[in-house]
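yo, Deoxyhypusine synthase-like protein is done. seq:
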Amino acid sequence: MSISAFMDKHYRHFNAREMVEAAKTYKSMVEGGGKMFMSIAGAMSTAELGISLAEMIRQDKVHAISCTAANFEEDFFNLVAHDEYELCPNYRDLSPEDEFKLREGGFNRVTDTCIPETVIRHFEDNLLEYWQEADQKGEQHFPTDYFFRLLKDGKLQEHYQIPPENSWVLAAYEKGIPVFTPGWEDSTLGNIFAARVYDGTLSTHNVIHPGTRMMQDLVKWYLEHEKNGIGFYQIGGGIAGDFAICAVPLILQDLEMRDSNLWSYFCQISDSTTSFGSYSGAVPNEKITWYKLSKDSPKFMINSDASIVAPLMFSYILGQ
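structure:
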């Protein structure tokens, strides 16, 4: 039995039913010529979402991405250092002493997965070369541009430790889809960049485009692709989602382009609680008041674990 057939047979109620319905609507929209924008929060790259997401990108089921900068860089880390990671299946039982030993051993823990510090410093060395070059030339680029240049220059290929088809950033680079990383400074390499400006290794922060320029490019992309509708698929909440979804109210209210379209589809996977006033847990209807969704837009809220739900939905959308 295929994954899709299994889901159709067993997932008939509650979150399971909503997941199948959301996947069917997603599939119908992109097959009908619409575009799909995806936002990714949490630590989904370290959870190896790339195994399923990369194929979605290759098969034109995802057309642009907004993600936390940590998700962006951590897919790169996994690509070249996967074999050096350490797994901690008993992470709930770790004592402060256990955590201290991991830190002293050169690991940074994300739930059950420990990322080696060495891979971070490897990227710092390579990116610093690009940052300094831009500094000297007075150039300014997006954070993602510097990372993608590593792929273009072939600096990483000999270091791949996973099948390259399992890397979503590599798939995005090869397909040429835009990747936006709002709040880049809230990431390991963003911290390192700020440190290199602080210590004088770099003379300015201006080698990185500001977030407002990123928003401008997102608005431009939206306006160029909205003809057949653009859907919004959101994993988690936070800045990755809120930054991107705000492009539409910016167009409608701030640019006063009233003939532009609202988001044509919305689906979110979240484990946040609505009553806490969080953006992550806000029900889709709340977005109507903010000029993000219309009252008729298909809307889905799946209250579950994205590391389980997203690969299942992707399989369904891909017809597996």
